Request: fold
Amino acid sequence: MFKHLFKKTALWWSTMPTTARADEVTSGATRIFAGATAFLGAFSVQEWGVIIGICLGIGSFSLSWYYKRKNHELLKQSLINQQLMKEMEQ
Reply:
């Protein structure tokens, strides 16, 4: 019943490269971890504290700005709705 689906899948899958050399995979992973370790080791604990503090400050500012802007938009919409209701009552 579903043999035609498997044949199409097998044909599609056969066009994909299926082998990767082990040294390519481990070499890439080694380079990524070596780079991450070098980056983390480049700064002292005090410098990491400053970097994290700056990132947290920027994040806090961004969140506060976003929600204040959203609150102002809601208040503006509420004011417009109230004005429309007053005009309809008159």
